[in-house]
Amino acid sequence: MVLDLREISTFTDFFVICSGTSEPHLKAISSGIREGLHTEANISPLSSEGSPLSQWIVIDYSDVLVHIFHSDKRRFYALESLWSDAPRMNLNA
Amino acid sequence: MKIGLYGGTFDPIHHGHLILARQTVEQLGLDRLVFIPAAQSPFKTGQALTPGQHRFEMVKLAIEGETHFAADDVEIERTGPSYSIDTVDIYRQAFPGADLFWLIGEDHVPSLPKWHRIDELKNRVRFVVLSRADWADAGPYPVIPRRIDISATEIRNRVANDLPITYLVPERVLRYLQAVKLYRGEEHRS
């Protein structure tokens, strides 16, 4: 799920929100994103917070913030409710 | 990006909260204001709160359709003691670089020094004091002044005594608390 915040927020343009089902899964998604963007576009994140153990990882690419949640973690819903007016896109990857 | 975090028991949420919230959004130029119903307060251990799910549901009903307002059940879902700083850290992680404001009632200003890890908290948010009077003893914090006198205690007592609370709470909140028969118990009778 992608939230388009360009009309709403000044600090980032897009939230990419995805979830994994286990700690290794979260770790794999996080490394996949970082390595993929690094090799294909030579982009590195400004920062990365959280760990698979905390069941929530945020990778900050400035214009795009990637949130990776454990599917048990309900923070996802709060993020969505905060941006209820943001256009959203579903990506079927 | 300015985000206001409005913690409180909201037992129940009423027009006083909502009027102050709107004024805060306008006065501080907030992009979003999040109502965060509190778990049992460490300072009010004697007073039993209505279960969090009901208080959260009433908040959601009260703010339905308001794009500047949101509700978050992070504190009532937390197991163990619930501290403001843990909530603030979640918002810092979710919104790096955002300005965070923590709204507190003026009655909480004297107890601020006792808050868990208050020195770190002060560095991570800007406190804003909501005042129900024309003046407030707010110490160094900015004040949102609004003379409005609706109390949740009065609302609970009126319900317990079969008195109407129309005009005090939003219609949708009224219907919800009637439907689930909140505040009808003896403990609220004054």
Which descriptors would you attach to this protein?
heterodimer, A: 93 residues, alpha+beta, Beta Polymerase, domain 2, six-stranded mixed β-sheet, 2 helices, 29% strand, globular, B: 190 residues, alpha/beta, Rossmann fold, six-stranded parallel β-sheet
Describe the structure.
The complex is a heterodimer of chains A (93) and B (190). Chain A has 93 residues and is of the alpha+beta class. Chain A has a single domain, classed as Beta Polymerase, domain 2 (2-Layer Sandwich). Chain A has a six-stranded mixed sheet with strand order 3-4-5-2-1-6. The mean pLDDT of chain A is 85. In chain B, strands 3-2-1-4-5-6 form a six-stranded parallel sheet, with helices on both faces. Chain B has 190 residues and is of the alpha/beta class. The longest helix of chain B is centred in the first third of the chain and has 14 residues. Chain B has one domain: Rossmann fold (3-Layer(aba) Sandwich), CATH 3.40.50.620. In chain B, 35% of the residues lie in helices and 17% in strands. The termini of chain B are far apart. In chain B, strand 1, helix 1 and strand 2 form a beta-alpha-beta unit. Chain B is built from seven helices and six strands. The mean pLDDT of chain B is 89. In chain B, 35% of the residues are buried. At the A-B interface, strand 4 and helix 2 of A face helix 4 of B.
